[in-house]
Amino acid sequence: MTHIRDIMTQDVETCSLKDNVFEVAVKMKELNVGVIPIVENKRLMGIITDRDLVLRCIAEKQPPSSKVEDVMSENLFTVTPDTTTQEAARLMAKEQIRRLPVVDNGMLVGIVALGDLAVRDLTDNQAKHALSEISEDDGEQATH
Length: 144
Hints:
Elements: H1 21-31, E1 35-40, E2 43-49, H2 50-58, H3 85-95, E3 99-104, E4 107-113, H4 114-118, H5 126-136
Antiparallel strand pairs: 1-2, 3-4
Helix pairs in contact: 3-5
């Protein structure tokens, strides 16, 4: 059985609560990613997705100097390195999310994306099921 530790991205770029929304957006562009975890002393405080930037910043006419706290999602679904890929895929499908922070005692240790699951040869097709469940929803939930 495959565990999240076997497929997660470990070297995750982050921002802190001291950063502003503009700095997060620039980092997303530079890294070509759609999510940046927000951490303080390695503790996961929240995440900001590209969708969060659009809905909570641009659409609300907030300035680029806005605090990350005003835009980030705080009530997160997370997994641990010991979570199985099947459990993670089920959680992603159920909650309609594409990325899961990986935490160990509240500390960010990685991130796993639906794509990470899809490239694995999962015997029970959990990634395929999760993707079909998530794709059925027209609006991705960025807050979880």
